[in-house]
């Protein structure tokens, strides 16, 4: 083991400036592996580092290598397994537990002892040794085998002391003085030993010579000890005196502390008494106001308000712990409760009487307002009651039941009052509204445009087309700004109805807003502290308003039904007016009673408007025409024009323009569809004429009114009008030159079959003789006669309202000239050099058309 120790020191630890102090041959417990060595080392440089190093013999050679190292400061527990029996096993607890089996118990004990000594010398940390004999943990070095293994090094560890620089310098100087210090170390050591003996003898003689001085020093020490005893006695007496002073000061301090506590308690008691007096004392004037204050005069009301606020403040004061147990406090609280109940009872009775009295006073004045379409104003009632608003707030905070009872009483009486006023108000409105059309009483069954546009029929099912004069007498024309002619209901009636309806809404709106504002202020429902209370207050206001004005919505619906019965076109006026008022109300308060109620009524008005549009469409679908007279402009086309003019006037700058645009689209599509239907069924008038005239009228109407949502329909109407005009002209012109048309159609057919144009004249049926024969059948006089007959026929087909005769005649002239040039071109190409020409010229044709138009 000594040889291994020296080899390890030389090969492994010396190069790393480390000294090997302890070693043990171990292997891992429970595993059959090669042996290794655990070494305890210290560094030669300061600060000293103590490590436990695991060294293993290399498999490829006879040398050792360093495998793993742990700092001794990281070691926490050393477990020797058994202190009483010899057991080579032991555990070292670093970051984990390492179990080892030593080659002998002696080596294990020697290594554990070395670790204990290193810890005591360099670390002084709390290292736990478990199952280790106390003999191993002594400062002395053990004997026996352990001494042979590690004892020498341990002694050297304890006795070793590094040479200082001066000591090294002295040693070098001595070695320089001796010639053989290096060559003969034993002789140099013998010389040093002799010199040391000489010095030791000199030291002994010096010590013996100084014995007298030592005795003198001892005597001085004895005297000094005696003086110390004297001083200690004096200090003890001083300490007793100071202790007496301390006891007296403690008594004075205790007395002062008791006095201070007494003063503090007195101050707190005074604060409590002042608190109770200041916050729980109600003046006699306030008590008298609460018990018998005048609730009718302004001064008495102000006194009651001040007293009620003072009482509420006294009742809501936050009492401190223990105040409830004081008899005076309980007595005051009982007094406050009695005053609260007494005043709440007086206030409730008085306000109940005010509600009843004011309600009867207002109802007695209703008869004065029945002649005019106005509602009574309740501002005097509100002004009188608002003086009690603060008292109502006090009642709400102190007596919730009485507050709610007053609310119900107010709602009940005001409901009766408003119900009578509103009923009378709407009766006047209905009388005035019905008076706008007394002469049309028998025509209330008319709906939609038929109610305002026809004078002798009640349904479009009975409408017939009986000529332009009869149709003109049945339809009415709108003047500018929506003014209607007086077939059944003149413009004055419609204007008067519009004013009546606007007056009704204008009277209801301020009435509801004023009442809602009063309820919010009087019943204190307008707080805005948080979102949730605000929603609750808004709900309470709406609930009270719904109960008070529960008759408004039915009365409005009844009035709307009457207006719609008189004339369904009234729904246009009502839709615009109602939409405007709903928009205004929503801008003020979207959740208000007025906004909600008018919104519900607006749904009814919109439904009536939609019903009016559907009625118009149904009447279009059921229209019938006469088989004996020409059609002309269809009644529903004229009525659409009148409807559009009226609607554009009414809906100018209206909020609900979108509703009208949707209605326009439905109506115009129905008009288009039914015009084509009537044109297909027409027997007297050609289909092209019916389509041309009616779509021309529709195009003119849409172009004049400039309805943006119907731009596509306007273009479509123009296209249909143009197409059918061209079709009618072509079909009509085929008759005056019928044989000539047939001849040249044959020529074009031959050319289409592949015959060259210059060879057509060689065809038997289309030679020059046949062409001259056909041309001679149409001299200028015959052409003019044919055109005159054509003019008369076109005149019979067309109606006078649209004035399209000259337009059609001019189109026919252009088409005739086109055909003439076409025929001339065919003659020039197919019969070149023949000299064949028509019996009349273009100039002749222009004179024919002009003279015929002027003659008629």
Automatic annotation (TrEMBL):
Principal location listed in the UniProt entry: membrane
Organism: Xiphophorus maculatus
An individual GO BP term: protein transport
Gene3D superfamilies: 2.30.29.90
Family of this protein: Belongs to the SEC3 family.
Keywords: Cell membrane, Coiled coil, Cytoplasm, Exocytosis, Membrane, Phosphoprotein, Protein transport, Transport
Keyword Ribosomal protein assigned: no
Official protein name in the record: Exocyst complex component 1
């Amino acid at each position: 083991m000594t040889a291994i120790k020296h080899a390890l020191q030389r090969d492994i630890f010396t190069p790393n400036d480390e000294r090997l102090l302890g070693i043990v041959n171990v292997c891992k417990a429970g595993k059959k592996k090669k042996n290794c060595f655990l070494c305890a080392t210290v560094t030669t440089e300061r600060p000293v580092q103590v490590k436990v190093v695991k060294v293993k013999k290399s498999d490829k050679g006879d040398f050792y290598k360093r495998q793993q190292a742990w700092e001794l400061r990281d070691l926490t527990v050393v477990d020797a397994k058994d202190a009483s029996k010899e057991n080579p096993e032991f555990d070292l607890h670093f970051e984990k537990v390492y179990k080892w089996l030593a080659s002998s118990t002696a080596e294990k004990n020697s290594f554990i002892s070395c670790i204990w000594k290193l810890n005591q010398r360099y670390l002084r940390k709390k290292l736990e040794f478990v199952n280790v004999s106390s003999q191993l943990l002594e400062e002395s070095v053990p004997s026996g085998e352990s001494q042979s293994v590690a004892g020498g090094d341990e002694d050297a560890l304890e006795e070793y002391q590094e040479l200082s620089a001066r000591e090294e310098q002295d040693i070098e100087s001595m070695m320089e003085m001796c010639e053989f210090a290096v060559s003969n170390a034993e002789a140099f050591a013998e010389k040093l030993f002799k010199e040391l003996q000489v010095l030791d003898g000199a030291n002994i003689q010096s010590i013996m010579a100084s014995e007298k001085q030592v005795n003198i020093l001892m005597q001085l020490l004895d005297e000094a000890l005696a003086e110390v005893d004297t001083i200690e006695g004096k200090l003890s007496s001083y300490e007793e005196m100071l202790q007496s002073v301390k006891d007296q000061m403690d008594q004075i301090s205790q007395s002062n502390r008791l006095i201070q506590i007494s003063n503090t308690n007195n101050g707190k008691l005074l604060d409590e008494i002042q608190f109770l007096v200041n916050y729980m004392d109600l003046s006699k004037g306030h008590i008298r106001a609460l018990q018998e204050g005048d609730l009718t005069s302004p001064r008495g009301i102000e006194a009651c308000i001040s007293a009620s606020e003072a009482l509420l403040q006294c009742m809501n004061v936050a009492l401190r712990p223990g105040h409830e147990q004081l008899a005076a406090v309980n007595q005051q609280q009982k007094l406050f409760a009695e005053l609260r109940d007494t005043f709440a009872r007086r206030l409730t009775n008085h306000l109940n009487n005010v509600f009843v009295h004011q309600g009867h006073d207002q109802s007695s004045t209703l008869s004065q307002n029945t002649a005019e379409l106005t509602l009574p104003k309740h501002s005097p009632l509100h002004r009188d009651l608002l003086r009690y608003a603060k008292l109502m707030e006090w009642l709400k905070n102190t007596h919730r039941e009485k507050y709610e009872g007053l609310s119900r009483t107010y709602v009940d009486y005001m409901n009766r009052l408003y119900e009578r006023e509103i009923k009378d108000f709407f009766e006047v409105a209905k009388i005035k509204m019905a008076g706008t059309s007394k002469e049309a009483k028998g025509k209330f069954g008319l709906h939609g445009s038929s109610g305002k546009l026809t004078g002798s029929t009640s349904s479009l099912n009975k409408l017939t087309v009986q000529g332009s004069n009869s149709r003109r007498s049945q339809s009415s024309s709108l003047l500018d700004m929506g003014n209607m002619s007086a077939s059944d209901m003149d413009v004055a009636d419609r204007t008067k109805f519009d004013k009546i309806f606007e007056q009704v809404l204008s009277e209801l709106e301020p009435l509801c807003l004023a009442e809602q504002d009063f309820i919010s202020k009087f019943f204190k429902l307008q707080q805005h502290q948080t979102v949730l209370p605000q929603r609750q207050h808004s709900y309470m206001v709406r609930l009270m308003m719904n109960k008070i004005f529960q008759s408004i919505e039915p009365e409005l619906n009844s009035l709307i039904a009457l207006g719609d019965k008189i004339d369904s076109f009234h729904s246009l006026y009502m839709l615009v007016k109602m939409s405007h008022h709903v928009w205004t109300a929503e801008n003020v308060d979207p959740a208000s009673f007025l906004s909600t109620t008018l919104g519900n009524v607006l749904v009814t008005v919109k439904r009536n408007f939609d019903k009016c549009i559907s009625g118009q469409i149904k009447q279009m679908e059921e229209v019938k025409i006469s088989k004996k007279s020409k059609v002309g402009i269809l009644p529903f086309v004229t009525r659409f024009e009148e409807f559009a003019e009226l609607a554009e006037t009414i809906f100018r700058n209206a909020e609900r323009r979108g509703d009208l645009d949707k209605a326009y689209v439905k109506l115009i599509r129905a008009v288009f569809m039914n015009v084509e239907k009537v044109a297909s069924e027409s027997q007297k008038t050609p289909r092209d004429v019916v389509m041309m005239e009616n779509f021309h009228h529709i195009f003119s109407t849409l172009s004049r009114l400039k309805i943006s949502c119907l731009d596509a329909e306007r273009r479509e109407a123009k296209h249909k009008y143009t197409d059918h005009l061209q079709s009618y002209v072509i079909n009509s012109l085929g008759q005056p030159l019928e044989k000539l048309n047939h001849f040249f159609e044959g020529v074009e057919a031959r050319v289409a079959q592949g015959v060259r144009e210059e060879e057509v004249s060689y065809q038997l049926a289309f030679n020059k003789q046949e062409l001259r024969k056909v041309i001679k059948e149409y001299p200028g006089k015959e052409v003019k006669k044919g055109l005159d007959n054509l003019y008369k026929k076109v005149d019979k087909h067309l109606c006078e309202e649209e004035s399209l005769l000259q337009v059609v005649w001019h189109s026919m002239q252009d088409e005739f000239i086109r055909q003439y040039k076409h025929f001339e071109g065919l003659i020039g190409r197919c019969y070149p050099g023949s000299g064949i020409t028509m019996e009349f010229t273009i100039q002749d044709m222009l004179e024919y058309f002009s003279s015929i138009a002027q003659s008629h």
